[in-house]
Amino acid sequence: MRTDTIRAAAVQIAPDLTGRAGTVERVLNAIAEAADKGARFIVFPETFVPYYPYFSFVLPPVQQGAPHLELYREAVTIPSPETRAVAEAARTRGVVVVLGVNERDHGSLYNTQLIFDADGTLALKRRKITPTYHERMVWGQGDGAGLKVVDTAVGRVGALACWEHYNPLARYALMAQHEEIHAAHFPGSLVGPVFGEQIEVTMRHHALEAGCFVVNATGWLTEEQIASIHPDPALQKGLRDGCMTCIVSPEGRHLAPPLTDREGILIADMDMRLITKRKRMMDSVGHYARPELLHLVHDTRPAQPRHEAPAPEAAAPSEEEPADV
After folding, report:
1. Residues pairing with 182 in the sheet
2. Is the N or C terminus of the chain more exposed, i.e. has fewer CB atoms within 10 Å?
3. Domain 5-281 belongs to what architecture?
4. Beta strand ranges found along the chain (DSSP E)
């Protein structure tokens, strides 16, 4: 039984909507602040670098060309100076960092989650398997290779983004790999109060069902940023509320009051003994499972647009027909 206690931090701050450099600076400052408070595990919001594509929620497709191209220009490649800066911050402070980014891979963008271990190595790069609704105009799809739990300095960590949590088989894929800490993130400042309410239900349910800790970070927009995204007050309503930054125990309890109405860094201590306490009663992928009746088939192959087939072996010349010379 694990007996250590790990301090976690969930970051709810605004990005720099003018570009990735400013947002990365905010990431580095937040890592330093959280580490100074003793955090060993730090989670940032969905596609936080350079920013979540809020424009896609309030603009019709015909008007999205310019902001979409700007997102291409500001998205990060992996590796890049930006990812190396975050890796170095994780290494210097000895913390595990989970960061959401807009990843550019040649002609496509992806909603990507990065897990940096405490030694600065990139332990996992995964892409959201199915972008939601308006997001499908912005990002490509991920694959099963990213549904992976990784060993880190703080334990076994898995991650999903936003409404991937409504895909029970995606969650089960991580549960079956015995995740101890689940990193989640949502855009925040979106949809309205009901979004935050739904996030809370979802995070607490996964913690209970998986028997793990959940550290969830949602984003934040200032009033000035909301006005810069769209001038119509009616549409601006869709860019407020929806925040639910929280840290939840395997018993489904908040370990600190959720952060919903302002910027900040939520801090809480995770007593890892609670994992065994919960799973003693209900281990959904162990003694409470019935794999002979119900089980998941998980295709872990990376999706590739091109596969090389081996060249056919040359046929040996027949005795009846001599080979050309």
Report:
1. 158, 214
2. C
3. 4-Layer Sandwich (3.60)
4. 5-12, 41-43, 96-105, 108-116, 122-127, 150-152, 155-161, 181-186, 213-218, 246-248, 264-271
- H/E element holding 33? helix 20-36
Question: What contacts 80, CB < 8 A, 6 or more positions away?
Answer: none
Count of CA atoms in the C-beta half-sphere (13 A) of 325: 2
Domain range summary for the chain, segments of one domain joined by +: 5-281
Number of helices and strands in the chain (H, E): 9, 11
pLDDT digits 0-9 by tens, 78-136: 999 999 999 999 999 999 999 999 999 999 999 999 999 999 999 999 999 999 999 99
Coil vs helix vs strand at 10: strand
Nearest to 152 by CA among 128, 174, 120: 120
Structure tokens at 312: 């056919």
- 159-191 tens-digit pLDDT: 999 999 999 999 999 999 999 999 999 999 999
User: If phi over 0 gives left and psi between -120 and 50 gives alpha, with beta otherwise, what is residue 14?
Assistant: beta
Question: Catalytic residues, which ones?
Answer: 46, 128, 162
- How crowded is the C-beta side of 245, counted as CA atoms within 13 Å? 29
pTM of the model: 0.94
For residue 217, give Cα distances in angstroms to 235, 268, 284. 24, 13, 25
Q: What angle do CA 144, 145, 151 make, to 5 degrees?
A: 120
Position 206: which residue type? H
Whether 194 has a pLDDT exceeding 80, the answer reads: yes
